[in-house]
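[Q] Does anyone have a clean structure-token version of this?
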Amino acid sequence: MTTEPPPTARRPVALVAFLLPRIEPGSAAREAETVPLPEPIPLPEGCAGRPFTLSCGRPALSVEAADPAPTDATGDCRDRQPAGAALRRAAALKALVRQRRLEALAPLGTVLPAAPGTPPPDDLAAFARANAPALAAAFERLCGHAQFQVLVAWDAPRAARRFAAAPELSGLPRRPHRAAREAAVAALARRLGDGIANRLAATATDAIRLPDTEGGLANLVLLVDDTERVALEATLEEIDALWKEGLRIRLVGPSPALSFARAQLETVGPDDLADAARRLGADPGLPVAPAAIAGLRRRALAATGGPDAPLPAEIDRAATLLAACARLERAPAAPGEAVLLSLARDGLPMAAGRADLACAIAEVA
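[A] Here you go.
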């Protein structure tokens, strides 16, 4: 299950993703999920995999790789480029290689991408114990899902004629001022874009609306269950039928859910762990039972209100740190660090998956 690490003599290794390998129905590993997968995992070129075990007993991999060398693309152009251009080229190459690696991992199982430049944890067993609930929740959320981006744009100059009967345009005089016509078309674009976005979001488990490009109506990233891909395709066909000659629809995906869940790792030292225990009224020199943390948190929240009292967010953070110590069966003030997992996303969720927010595209137009 482990591959040889890539050559990284001068390039640091970064975490690419955590991978929950796919288990084929009827396999021995399917029947006994506490047994690591016997077959080697065909990781992307340049990547290495270190195995660890989730709290449920399923085997997982920490997929790691060094940043690409400048010569990994079209040759070494460092001597012929200004410093700024070389840096931009290197950043673009890193992003491209990272995306290709993540896409190559997708067929192998459930992929939890890492934020760019994230160093991998040294002790994977301790990391898995400390973050057992977060890892389980992340893999459960992403399993059987893929990310798609949908961009819908239109031919704005011709829109006034195509949608002349729309409420925004039907009340204009026969020869409206240019500013009035442009304002009416912009209002129609907002309404039509909202309708398209809601229809697309209704096919997804989660959806994020991104800023529109020039001439754009809707720009979304969708987290789509594998069983809902047919519904997504049908909705795209419905949108396309609205104005085949004037709409441009671009679909990007399927790909790993980079916009919805990126693993970020934080290394926390014993001083901060001990301070978290004190915030909750626990002895930093003694281990805390996992069952006691909820009560400590409730008492700390009930005591807030004074000028020196910690904020609720600080109490929640302290409870998270103390829970990690409890799962590691260590005293907060004991020597050694803890590596904690958090998930980042690109934006706030739309009200995805709610059919009551979406009506037929023809009705919107």
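[Q] Thanks! Anything notable?
[A] Residues 5-10, 25-33, 352-357 have pLDDT under 50 and may be disordered.
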